[in-house]
Design a protein that fits this description.
Blueprint: E1 2-8, E2 10-11, E3 14-15, E4 20-24, E5 29-33, H1 40-47, E6 55-60, E7 63-64, H2 70-75, E8 78-81, H3 93-99, H4 107-120, H5 137-149, E9 155-159, H6 167-184, E10 187-192, H7 195-201, E11 204-209, E12 212-218, H8 219-224, H9 226-239
Parallel strand pairs: 5-10, 5-11, 8-9, 9-10
Antiparallel strand pairs: 1-4, 1-6, 2-3, 6-7, 11-12
Helix pairs in contact: 3-5
């Protein structure tokens, strides 16, 4: 469904992504793991056209999207839940959710999509008239994911969804991501530092270091690799990240 083919980027002539290649098959959950500064968020921004590649290509459903504007890319069926939620704090929960379905005018379809969000996050139903900025961190995370799926995406990009959440909420969020994939059939690219949790729900994954893919494979294979055990699994088990 989505393929990055030797994609390179730079900021002010400083290399960021270095011939990065990865592929995400339809209906799968793929995780992209890496420490801070590895290039994970840059990868998301590059897919969305916010960072322009200086080399390589990005293909979605076998068609190049390199060079398209962000709104054109989103219209093709790519949705993102950005790092840090990025909600509009003074707008209500309902208004934030509606941004995810801005192009939908059918009231019946809108209601159907809202009910889908409520099914995943029942607590949101009673918060619809509340300003998003007054919600707890966990509730804001629910709204951010809800907004992402309101566009009924073909693929959902999740950038650090567990960031800042309590261990209990981390477990709940990863279970929800798995449900979105299994029940709704949504393909997922999961960007995470929380390696153990991400690998537990993904089909396969990639390890990113200094803008390069240093390991890839099924999640079972990755968990047995020394580079993954030493750099990610011990850390994630030890500090809950």
């Amino acid at each position: 469904m989505l393929r990055l083919d030797k994609v390179s980027t730079e900021y002010d002539r400083v290399p960021m992504l270095r011939e990065l290649s990865l592929r995400i098959e339809k209906g799968k959950v793929v995780c992209l793991l890496g420490s801070n500064g590895a290039g994970k968020t840059t990868t998301v921004k590059t897919i969305l056209g916010l960072v322009k590649p200086i080399g390589g290509d990005i293909l979605f459903e076998d068609r190049s999207i390199r060079g398209l504007k962000t709104d054109q890319i989103v219209e093709r069926g790519i949705s993102v839940v950005p790092e840090g939620r990025r909600l509009f704090p003074k707008m209500t929960v309902h208004e934030n959710l509606m941004i995810g379905a801005a192009s939908v005018n059918d009231k019946v379809e809108l209601r159907k999509r809202l009910e889908g969000v409520f099914f995943l996050f029942p607590a949101i139903r009673d918060r619809m008239g509340q300003a998003a900025g007054t919600l707890s961190g966990g509730e804001q995370g629910m709204v951010a994911i809800g907004r992402g799926i309101m566009s009924n995406p073909k693929i959902l990009l999740l950038d650090e969804p567990s960031l800042g959440l309590s261990p209990k909420l981390v477990d709940e969020f990863f279970q929800t991501i798995a449900r979105i994939n299994k029940k709704q059939g949504t393909t997922v690219l999961l960007i995470e530092q929380h390696a153990t949790k991400a690998l537990s729900i993904a089909d396969n994954g990639y390890i990113l270091q200094k803008g390069r893919i240093i390991a890839e494979g099924t999640c079972g294979d990755l968990m047995e690799m020394d580079v993954v055990k030493n750099a990610y699994l011990k850390t994630s088990r030890g500090n809950g990240r």
